[in-house]
What we know:
Strand content: 35-45%
Shape: globular
Order of helices and strands: EHEEEEEHEEHHHEEEHEHEEEEEEEEE
Number of helices: 7
Mean pLDDT: 95
Helix content: 10-25%
Amino acid sequence: MFEVSGNAHMHTPYSDGIKWHKEIAADAIKAGLDFIIVTDHNVWVDEIEGYFENEQGKVLVLVGEEVHDMRRDPQVNHFLVYGTNKEMSRYASDPQRLIDETCIASGYGFLAHPFDPPLPAFHEPDYSWQDWHVEGFTGLEIWNYMSEFKGLIKGKLSAVQVVLNPQKYIMGPDAQVLAKWDELLAQGKRVAAVGNSDAHGQTYNMGPIKRVVFPYEFLFRAVNTHLLLPQALNGDVAHDKGLILEAIGRGRGWVAYDMPHPTKGFRFTGQGLNKGIMGDDVKLGHGATLQVITPIACHIRLIRHGQVVAKAQNSTNLTHIPVEPGAYRVECFVPYFGKRRGWIFSNPIYLR
Protein backbone atom coordinates (compact mmCIF):
# COMPACT_ATOMS: atom_id res chain seq x y z
CA MET A 1 0.00 0.00 0.00
CA PHE A 2 1.09 3.57 -0.68
CA GLU A 3 0.54 6.20 2.00
CA VAL A 4 -0.45 9.80 1.27
CA SER A 5 -1.60 12.63 3.52
CA GLY A 6 -3.84 15.58 2.85
CA ASN A 7 -6.44 18.03 4.03
CA ALA A 8 -9.96 18.15 2.68
CA HIS A 9 -11.69 21.21 4.19
CA MET A 10 -10.56 24.78 3.48
CA HIS A 11 -11.74 28.01 1.89
CA THR A 12 -10.64 30.65 -0.62
CA PRO A 13 -11.99 34.15 -1.40
CA TYR A 14 -14.70 32.44 -3.45
CA SER A 15 -16.38 32.11 -0.04
CA ASP A 16 -14.75 33.27 3.20
CA GLY A 17 -11.05 32.41 2.93
CA ILE A 18 -8.22 34.85 2.26
CA LYS A 19 -5.89 32.91 -0.08
CA TRP A 20 -6.43 31.63 -3.59
CA HIS A 21 -5.79 28.06 -4.70
CA LYS A 22 -2.22 28.63 -5.88
CA GLU A 23 -1.25 30.28 -2.58
CA ILE A 24 -2.91 27.55 -0.53
CA ALA A 25 -1.14 24.92 -2.64
CA ALA A 26 2.20 26.56 -1.82
CA ASP A 27 1.38 26.32 1.90
CA ALA A 28 0.38 22.67 1.50
CA ILE A 29 3.70 21.93 -0.21
CA LYS A 30 5.59 23.59 2.65
CA ALA A 31 3.65 21.45 5.11
CA GLY A 32 4.50 18.27 3.19
CA LEU A 33 0.97 17.33 2.07
CA ASP A 34 0.30 15.20 -1.00
CA PHE A 35 -3.22 16.50 -1.73
CA ILE A 36 -5.76 19.09 -0.66
CA ILE A 37 -9.47 19.44 -1.38
CA VAL A 38 -10.75 23.03 -1.42
CA THR A 39 -14.35 23.23 -0.19
CA ASP A 40 -15.74 26.72 -0.57
CA HIS A 41 -19.18 27.45 0.87
CA ASN A 42 -21.96 26.73 -1.61
CA VAL A 43 -19.80 27.15 -4.69
CA TRP A 44 -18.08 24.55 -6.84
CA VAL A 45 -15.16 26.05 -8.72
CA ASP A 46 -14.48 24.49 -12.11
CA GLU A 47 -11.19 24.19 -14.03
CA ILE A 48 -8.93 24.48 -10.98
CA GLU A 49 -8.00 20.87 -10.28
CA GLY A 50 -4.50 19.69 -11.00
CA TYR A 51 -0.96 19.49 -9.70
CA PHE A 52 0.56 22.71 -8.42
CA GLU A 53 4.35 22.71 -8.38
CA ASN A 54 7.20 24.91 -7.18
CA GLU A 55 10.85 24.45 -6.29
CA GLN A 56 9.87 22.77 -2.99
CA GLY A 57 7.63 20.10 -4.46
CA LYS A 58 4.11 19.53 -5.72
CA VAL A 59 0.62 18.90 -4.40
CA LEU A 60 -2.58 17.68 -6.03
CA VAL A 61 -5.36 20.27 -5.67
CA LEU A 62 -8.91 18.94 -5.91
CA VAL A 63 -12.19 20.83 -5.59
CA GLY A 64 -15.17 19.92 -3.45
CA GLU A 65 -17.83 22.00 -1.77
CA GLU A 66 -19.19 22.74 1.71
CA VAL A 67 -22.94 22.93 1.26
CA HIS A 68 -25.43 24.40 3.73
CA ASP A 69 -28.76 26.21 3.55
CA MET A 70 -28.08 29.95 3.51
CA ARG A 71 -31.73 30.67 4.32
CA ARG A 72 -31.73 28.61 7.51
CA ASP A 73 -30.99 30.49 10.73
CA PRO A 74 -28.61 29.43 12.11
CA GLN A 75 -27.02 27.80 9.08
CA VAL A 76 -26.61 24.29 10.52
CA ASN A 77 -26.12 21.01 8.62
CA HIS A 78 -22.85 21.72 6.81
CA PHE A 79 -22.08 18.94 4.33
CA LEU A 80 -18.71 18.28 2.67
CA VAL A 81 -19.09 17.06 -0.90
CA TYR A 82 -16.22 15.37 -2.74
CA GLY A 83 -16.06 14.05 -6.28
CA THR A 84 -19.42 15.08 -7.79
CA ASN A 85 -17.77 17.35 -10.36
CA LYS A 86 -20.73 19.70 -10.32
CA GLU A 87 -22.53 22.29 -8.24
CA MET A 88 -24.55 20.77 -5.36
CA SER A 89 -25.74 23.80 -3.41
CA ARG A 90 -29.11 23.73 -5.22
CA TYR A 91 -30.04 20.86 -2.88
CA ALA A 92 -28.95 22.61 0.32
CA SER A 93 -32.45 23.09 1.76
CA ASP A 94 -33.10 19.34 1.92
CA PRO A 95 -30.25 17.40 3.60
CA GLN A 96 -31.55 13.99 2.52
CA ARG A 97 -31.95 15.13 -1.09
CA LEU A 98 -28.44 16.56 -0.95
CA ILE A 99 -27.05 13.23 0.25
CA ASP A 100 -29.01 11.29 -2.36
CA GLU A 101 -27.91 13.55 -5.21
CA THR A 102 -24.30 13.29 -4.05
CA CYS A 103 -24.52 9.50 -4.27
CA ILE A 104 -26.23 9.67 -7.69
CA ALA A 105 -23.33 11.83 -8.91
CA SER A 106 -20.86 9.14 -7.67
CA GLY A 107 -19.57 11.52 -5.00
CA TYR A 108 -18.86 11.15 -1.31
CA GLY A 109 -20.47 13.21 1.43
CA PHE A 110 -19.36 13.86 5.01
CA LEU A 111 -21.22 15.65 7.79
CA ALA A 112 -18.91 18.58 8.56
CA HIS A 113 -18.07 19.49 12.18
CA PRO A 114 -21.10 17.50 13.49
CA PHE A 115 -20.85 19.12 16.93
CA ASP A 116 -19.74 22.71 16.43
CA PRO A 117 -20.20 24.87 19.56
CA PRO A 118 -21.30 28.51 19.55
CA LEU A 119 -18.80 31.30 20.11
CA PRO A 120 -20.80 33.94 22.01
CA ALA A 121 -17.83 36.26 22.56
CA PHE A 122 -17.60 36.69 18.79
CA HIS A 123 -21.35 36.42 18.04
CA GLU A 124 -20.97 33.12 16.20
CA PRO A 125 -23.80 30.58 16.57
CA ASP A 126 -23.76 26.80 16.87
CA TYR A 127 -23.24 25.22 13.43
CA SER A 128 -23.71 21.58 14.48
CA TRP A 129 -25.47 18.97 12.38
CA GLN A 130 -29.14 18.77 13.38
CA ASP A 131 -30.98 16.39 11.05
CA TRP A 132 -29.72 13.02 12.28
CA HIS A 133 -32.55 11.11 10.61
CA VAL A 134 -30.72 11.24 7.27
CA GLU A 135 -29.31 8.11 5.63
CA GLY A 136 -26.68 7.32 3.04
CA PHE A 137 -23.91 9.77 3.88
CA THR A 138 -20.36 8.50 3.53
CA GLY A 139 -19.09 9.57 6.93
CA LEU A 140 -18.27 12.16 9.54
CA GLU A 141 -15.63 14.83 9.90
CA ILE A 142 -14.64 13.59 13.34
CA TRP A 143 -11.95 16.20 13.99
CA ASN A 144 -12.21 19.79 12.77
CA TYR A 145 -9.37 21.94 14.13
CA MET A 146 -11.29 25.21 14.03
CA SER A 147 -14.34 23.68 15.71
CA GLU A 148 -12.18 22.44 18.56
CA PHE A 149 -10.69 25.92 18.81
CA LYS A 150 -14.19 27.38 19.12
CA GLY A 151 -15.02 24.96 21.90
CA LEU A 152 -12.04 26.16 23.93
CA ILE A 153 -13.10 29.82 23.88
CA LYS A 154 -15.01 31.02 26.95
CA GLY A 155 -14.34 34.71 26.42
CA LYS A 156 -11.94 37.14 24.76
CA LEU A 157 -9.14 36.47 27.25
CA SER A 158 -9.22 32.73 26.66
CA ALA A 159 -9.33 33.41 22.91
CA VAL A 160 -6.02 35.28 23.15
CA GLN A 161 -4.48 32.48 25.23
CA VAL A 162 -5.48 29.76 22.77
CA VAL A 163 -4.53 31.75 19.67
CA LEU A 164 -1.05 32.49 21.00
CA ASN A 165 -0.38 28.91 22.17
CA PRO A 166 -2.78 26.50 20.43
CA GLN A 167 -0.56 23.45 20.97
CA LYS A 168 -1.17 23.78 24.74
CA TYR A 169 -4.93 23.44 24.33
CA ILE A 170 -5.80 21.26 21.32
CA MET A 171 -6.64 17.79 22.67
CA GLY A 172 -8.58 15.70 20.14
CA PRO A 173 -11.97 15.06 18.54
CA ASP A 174 -15.09 16.15 20.42
CA ALA A 175 -16.32 13.32 22.67
CA GLN A 176 -19.85 13.80 21.31
CA VAL A 177 -18.63 13.20 17.77
CA LEU A 178 -16.86 9.98 18.74
CA ALA A 179 -19.92 8.80 20.68
CA LYS A 180 -22.18 9.46 17.68
CA TRP A 181 -19.73 7.66 15.38
CA ASP A 182 -19.70 4.62 17.67
CA GLU A 183 -23.49 4.71 17.88
CA LEU A 184 -23.81 4.63 14.09
CA LEU A 185 -21.21 1.87 13.78
CA ALA A 186 -23.01 -0.19 16.43
CA GLN A 187 -26.14 0.03 14.25
CA GLY A 188 -24.23 -1.80 11.55
CA LYS A 189 -23.66 1.24 9.34
CA ARG A 190 -20.48 1.89 7.41
CA VAL A 191 -19.31 5.35 8.45
CA ALA A 192 -15.94 6.63 7.29
CA ALA A 193 -14.02 9.40 9.05
CA VAL A 194 -11.94 12.36 7.94
CA GLY A 195 -10.09 15.03 9.91
CA ASN A 196 -9.44 18.50 8.58
CA SER A 197 -8.28 22.04 9.20
CA ASP A 198 -11.30 24.10 8.06
CA ALA A 199 -8.72 26.74 7.16
CA HIS A 200 -9.83 30.29 6.32
CA GLY A 201 -6.74 32.32 7.19
CA GLN A 202 -8.81 35.16 8.55
CA THR A 203 -7.26 38.03 10.50
CA TYR A 204 -8.89 39.01 13.79
CA ASN A 205 -8.39 42.17 15.80
CA MET A 206 -8.62 42.28 19.58
CA GLY A 207 -7.49 45.65 20.87
CA PRO A 208 -3.82 46.07 19.95
CA ILE A 209 -3.52 42.41 18.88
CA LYS A 210 -3.91 41.64 15.19
CA ARG A 211 -3.35 38.04 14.16
CA VAL A 212 -4.20 35.52 11.45
CA VAL A 213 -6.24 32.73 13.08
CA PHE A 214 -4.83 30.30 11.97
CA PRO A 215 -2.46 30.38 8.92
CA TYR A 216 -3.08 27.69 6.31
CA GLU A 217 0.42 26.24 6.59
CA PHE A 218 0.16 25.96 10.38
CA LEU A 219 -3.14 24.09 10.12
CA PHE A 220 -1.77 21.80 7.40
CA ARG A 221 0.84 20.63 9.91
CA ALA A 222 -1.85 19.77 12.46
CA VAL A 223 -5.02 17.71 11.82
CA ASN A 224 -4.97 15.81 8.52
CA THR A 225 -6.29 12.67 6.87
CA HIS A 226 -3.84 9.92 5.88
CA LEU A 227 -4.84 7.40 3.21
CA LEU A 228 -3.54 4.04 2.01
CA LEU A 229 -3.71 3.60 -1.77
CA PRO A 230 -3.37 0.38 -3.79
CA GLN A 231 -1.18 2.19 -6.32
CA ALA A 232 1.26 5.07 -6.13
CA LEU A 233 0.30 8.52 -7.35
CA ASN A 234 1.79 8.84 -10.83
CA GLY A 235 1.16 12.49 -11.69
CA ASP A 236 -1.86 11.85 -13.91
CA VAL A 237 -4.60 14.01 -12.39
CA ALA A 238 -7.56 11.77 -13.28
CA HIS A 239 -5.78 8.63 -12.08
CA ASP A 240 -4.58 10.16 -8.83
CA LYS A 241 -7.90 11.89 -8.10
CA GLY A 242 -9.71 8.56 -8.45
CA LEU A 243 -7.34 6.83 -6.04
CA ILE A 244 -7.66 9.55 -3.39
CA LEU A 245 -11.44 9.89 -3.56
CA GLU A 246 -12.02 6.14 -3.45
CA ALA A 247 -9.75 5.84 -0.40
CA ILE A 248 -11.60 8.68 1.36
CA GLY A 249 -14.95 7.15 0.54
CA ARG A 250 -14.00 3.67 1.72
CA GLY A 251 -12.33 4.91 4.89
CA ARG A 252 -8.93 3.50 3.97
CA GLY A 253 -6.91 5.54 6.41
CA TRP A 254 -6.86 7.52 9.61
CA VAL A 255 -7.28 10.97 11.11
CA ALA A 256 -3.97 12.30 12.44
CA TYR A 257 -2.65 15.11 14.61
CA ASP A 258 0.72 15.32 12.90
CA MET A 259 2.06 18.19 15.00
CA PRO A 260 3.27 16.21 18.06
CA HIS A 261 4.94 13.62 15.81
CA PRO A 262 4.36 12.45 12.21
CA THR A 263 1.93 9.54 12.01
CA LYS A 264 3.43 8.18 8.80
CA GLY A 265 3.82 4.42 9.05
CA PHE A 266 0.78 3.74 11.23
CA ARG A 267 -1.02 0.55 10.25
CA PHE A 268 -4.17 -1.22 11.44
CA THR A 269 -4.81 -4.59 9.81
CA GLY A 270 -7.04 -7.58 10.25
CA GLN A 271 -6.84 -11.22 9.24
CA GLY A 272 -9.57 -13.85 9.40
CA LEU A 273 -10.75 -15.83 6.41
CA ASN A 274 -9.30 -12.91 4.45
CA LYS A 275 -6.92 -10.01 5.08
CA GLY A 276 -7.98 -6.40 5.32
CA ILE A 277 -7.03 -2.87 6.26
CA MET A 278 -9.04 0.07 7.52
CA GLY A 279 -12.32 0.34 5.62
CA ASP A 280 -12.39 -3.37 4.71
CA ASP A 281 -14.68 -6.23 5.68
CA VAL A 282 -12.86 -9.15 7.30
CA LYS A 283 -14.66 -12.47 7.70
CA LEU A 284 -14.29 -13.91 11.19
CA GLY A 285 -14.52 -17.61 10.44
CA HIS A 286 -13.28 -19.46 13.55
CA GLY A 287 -11.35 -16.38 14.64
CA ALA A 288 -9.48 -13.32 13.53
CA THR A 289 -6.45 -11.24 14.47
CA LEU A 290 -6.31 -7.45 14.61
CA GLN A 291 -2.92 -5.76 14.73
CA VAL A 292 -1.91 -2.14 15.33
CA ILE A 293 1.57 -0.80 14.55
CA THR A 294 2.57 2.77 15.37
CA PRO A 295 5.68 4.77 14.37
CA ILE A 296 6.54 5.67 17.99
CA ALA A 297 5.56 4.36 21.41
CA CYS A 298 2.14 5.61 22.51
CA HIS A 299 -1.01 4.67 24.37
CA ILE A 300 -3.13 2.49 22.07
CA ARG A 301 -6.82 1.68 22.49
CA LEU A 302 -8.84 -0.72 20.35
CA ILE A 303 -12.52 0.20 20.43
CA ARG A 304 -15.63 -1.71 19.39
CA HIS A 305 -18.90 0.23 19.41
CA GLY A 306 -17.72 2.63 22.10
CA GLN A 307 -16.13 0.04 24.38
CA VAL A 308 -12.38 -0.43 24.84
CA VAL A 309 -11.65 -4.10 24.11
CA ALA A 310 -7.84 -3.98 24.24
CA LYS A 311 -5.13 -1.46 25.09
CA ALA A 312 -1.38 -1.07 25.34
CA GLN A 313 0.66 1.50 27.24
CA ASN A 314 3.87 3.05 25.88
CA SER A 315 4.02 0.57 23.03
CA THR A 316 4.33 0.50 19.25
CA ASN A 317 2.25 -2.64 18.85
CA LEU A 318 -1.09 -4.08 19.89
CA THR A 319 -2.47 -7.48 18.84
CA HIS A 320 -5.98 -8.63 19.68
CA ILE A 321 -7.99 -11.74 18.84
CA PRO A 322 -11.64 -10.68 18.75
CA VAL A 323 -14.54 -13.06 19.25
CA GLU A 324 -17.41 -10.76 18.23
CA PRO A 325 -18.32 -9.22 14.89
CA GLY A 326 -18.59 -5.45 14.61
CA ALA A 327 -16.68 -2.31 13.71
CA TYR A 328 -13.27 -2.04 15.39
CA ARG A 329 -11.31 1.22 15.38
CA VAL A 330 -8.09 2.47 16.99
CA GLU A 331 -7.25 5.52 19.08
CA CYS A 332 -3.66 6.48 19.90
CA PHE A 333 -2.45 9.14 22.35
CA VAL A 334 0.94 10.76 22.90
CA PRO A 335 2.29 13.26 25.45
CA TYR A 336 2.69 16.78 24.08
CA PHE A 337 3.14 20.06 25.94
CA GLY A 338 2.73 18.23 29.25
CA LYS A 339 -0.59 16.51 28.49
CA ARG A 340 -1.83 13.40 26.75
CA ARG A 341 -3.17 14.38 23.32
CA GLY A 342 -5.20 12.58 20.71
CA TRP A 343 -2.82 11.54 17.95
CA ILE A 344 -4.35 8.88 15.67
CA PHE A 345 -8.00 7.93 15.14
CA SER A 346 -8.32 5.12 12.62
CA ASN A 347 -11.18 4.23 10.37
CA PRO A 348 -12.82 0.92 11.30
CA ILE A 349 -12.17 -2.61 10.19
CA TYR A 350 -15.53 -4.35 9.89
CA LEU A 351 -15.55 -7.92 11.22
CA ARG A 352 -18.43 -9.85 9.72
